């Protein structure tokens, strides 16, 4: 734990202001990610922590909500994340044991906006005796649509392509047809809204600890606002604004910080591009002096590497924060440290 925390802090050496804030927060933090079976759960190593029976049991659908619930819930919550580390959430579907985990919890937090194509059926499938309160955490965020047209080519194949995936996933199909971009959490500005919704959900489920949840939220808000300020300042100074990314996960980041997203794949990484799309993007890269193609760790980097070699540029990670790898989890990485690294990479790529 100590080691992990040290590594976590060391990574932030370039963001001085943020480091100070995080050091202060690390002193009072008492949660850690511990893989248990196929899920992440909070650790109860802190002697002061409430006993399990007194804690609110919270189940989250994917990593960013797990992060927010542990940060804001602190010692009063026991959080289980349904998706194990190393798993990319777009093609994850729940098993029956996930239904019983959620049925037995007091609070189930999911993102909504089409991220969890399985969630409508999941909510209907919860045990009839369950008293779990379910909350869609993206509510209140101004949603954007996925990219219809890209700079150098029409993207009209996307809708038709996704129509091939019919079958049991009704909700996902509806979402794809609407074309709503679910990746709100990638922008610190919308992460703040998610954090507030998580706080309100915790207060509703456990009003006895309202002041602690509010205090933890305020501490997290300071960190998210510091990241937001760094993104705003540093990205306003970059020469290039074009980010060529693995899948279309950075729409909210692009909107909030004046970038132009050019995705190789669609809103979900399964939707593979046509050869012509790749050639068009390679042409775009050459003509617009793009120096790096971004890839992500939970999805194969093959297309990004192919494209980079075609356009004769390098690759670099831009993390859509959909989940941690096992290595990142072991190293004590979090939404905050990965957002910090994303900014460093963006600045390097866009100079
Ligand atoms: Zn995604």
Give the tags.
single chain; alpha/beta; Rossmann fold; six-stranded mixed beta sheet; 14 helices; globular
Question: How is this structure best summarized?
Answer:
With 351 residues, this protein is of the alpha/beta class. It has helices spanning 2-10, 16-28, 63-73, 96-103, 119-125, 157-163, 170-178, 188-205, 210-236, 251-257, 275-287, 302-311, 326-330, 335-350; strands at residues 33-36, 39-42, 56-60, 77-81, 107-110, 133-136, 144-145, 149-150, 153-154, 180-181, 242-245, 260-263, 292-295, 314-317.
Tell me what the structure shows:
By secondary structure, the chain is of the alpha/beta class. The chain folds into two domains: 7-31 and 231-350, Rossmann fold, CATH 3.40.50; 36-142 and 184-225, Rossmann fold (3-Layer(aba) Sandwich). It has helices spanning 2-10, 16-28, 63-73, 96-103, 119-125, 157-163, 170-178, 188-205, 210-236, 251-257, 275-287, 302-311, 326-330, 335-350, and strands at residues 33-36, 39-42, 56-60, 77-81, 107-110, 133-136, 144-145, 149-150, 153-154, 180-181, 242-245, 260-263, 292-295, 314-317. A six-stranded mixed β-sheet has the order 1-2-4-3-5-6, covered by helices on one side. It has a two-stranded antiparallel ribbon with strand order 7-10. Helix 5 (119-125) links the parallel strand 5 and strand 6 (133-136). It is globular and about 60 Å long. The two termini are 36 Å apart. The model is unreliable at 1-37 and 149-177 (pLDDT under 50). The structure holds zinc ion (ZN). Residues 90, 183, 247, 249, 320, 322 line the site of zinc ion (ZN).
